[in-house]
Amino acid sequence: MSDLRFDDRQVPSPSGFHLNKRRGKLMGVCAGIADYFGFDVTLVRVAWVIGTLVGFGSLILIYLAIGFIAD
After folding, report:
1. Which of 34, 38, 43, 52 has the CB geometry, 3.0–4.6 Å to 59, for a possible disulfide?
2. Is the pTM of this model over 0.85?
3. Is 9 inside a domain boundary?
């Protein structure tokens, strides 16, 4: 068997939420949320986009607030 790993998930940080700028696309907010809760980052991004469309853009302000406040 090969020792190749295709899953780059990390163990949630015991010290709290942190942005993941290495795996992030814009500010690392969705990647940080995915790491913290143990979800797939793609699912978090899709849920965030759907929530933004349904909430008439209100999640954009929340995303920016998390991005500037965290770390």
Report:
1. 52
2. no
3. no
